[in-house]
């Protein structure tokens, strides 16, 4: 079999609804690697939020911050930080709305609020320890920021979309949206990844379950939406597998012929 590139989203795709890695998914990844395929993560998470999973699955290549930061075998090959002037505009506008921001750099994340229950609830839903988030409203001034978390309700989204048209907003939680550079996506990260590794789009298999996976699923030659994905995401994919909690990864890999 020709070597393939398999990209996995993490939350709701590799990790189940309890943020656990199903045994069948772990075994499937091991089988892919033993067959000589390249396996990587394509996630909205920061590198410091996937260290345990990287060790468990022995994966040392990843696309983080929804495509803005790409590392292959411990070498950073692509970075796309958000423009500082745009961050200053976002910061000023969110302050007038009393909405918290969390700035995400390559090594740390910092918040504009000392504590906020929405930040606590959203990040603990990902099993992220919020005690490591310090307050620093001007963190973006001297640190490259690849993604920002904006805390606002769904009915308040248009305020930001209308006032900050050079930024991309993607909802990932009832309380929060990812803020990215315009044009930034997991698809762009994959493009940089396969340029470096010499794969074609048709050799790419992508698995995802949420709105931030749509561009990736549309870009990959072979795309698989999880059974737990919203309809909008399923429509963007070539295949739909079972729910993540029903061995959806192993089933999907069998569907596309990568596992027997």
From TrEMBL:
Superkingdom in the source lineage: Bacteria
Pfam families, A to Z: Hydrolase_3
InterPro entries: Cof, HAD-like_sf, HAD-SF_hydro_IIB, HAD_sf
PANTHER family on file: PHOSPHATASE YKRA-RELATED, PHOSPHOSERINE PHOSPHATASE
Record's protein name: Cof subfamily protein (Haloacid dehalogenase superfamily)
Organism encoding this protein: Sporosarcina psychrophila
Upper taxonomic lineage: Bacteria, Bacillati, Bacillota, Bacilli, Bacillales
């Amino acid at each position: 079999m020709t070597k393939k590139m398999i990209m996995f989203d993490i939350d709701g795709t590799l990790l189940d609804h309890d943020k656990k890695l199903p045994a069948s998914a772990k075994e499937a990844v091991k089988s892919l690697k033993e067959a000589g395929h390249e396996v990587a993560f394509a996630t909205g998470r920061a590198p410091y939020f996937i260290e345990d999973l990287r060790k468990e699955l022995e994966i040392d290549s990843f696309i983080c911050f929804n495509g803005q930061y790409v590392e292959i075998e411990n070498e950073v090959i692509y970075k796309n930080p958000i423009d500082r002037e745009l961050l200053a505009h976002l910061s000023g506008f969110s302050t007038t709305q009393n909405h918290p921001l969390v700035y995400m750099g390559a090594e740390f994340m910092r918040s504009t609020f000392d504590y906020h229950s929405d930040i606590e609830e959203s990040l603990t839903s990902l099993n992220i320890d919020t005690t490591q988030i310090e307050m620093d409203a001007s963190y973006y001034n001297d640190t490259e920021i690849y993604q920002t978390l904006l805390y606002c309700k769904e009915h308040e989204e248009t305020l930001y979309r209308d006032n900050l048209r050079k930024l991309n907003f993607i909802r990932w939680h009832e309380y929060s949206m990812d803020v990215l550079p315009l044009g930034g996506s997991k698809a762009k990260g994959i493009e940089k990844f396969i340029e470096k590794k010499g794969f074609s789009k048709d050799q790419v298999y992508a698995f995802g379950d949420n709105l931030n996976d749509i561009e990736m699923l549309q870009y990959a030659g072979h795309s698989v939406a999880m059974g737990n994905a919203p309809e909008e995401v399923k429509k963007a994919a070539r295949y739909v597998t079972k729910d993540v909690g029903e061995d959806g990864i192993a089933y999907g890999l069998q569907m596309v012929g990568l596992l027997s």
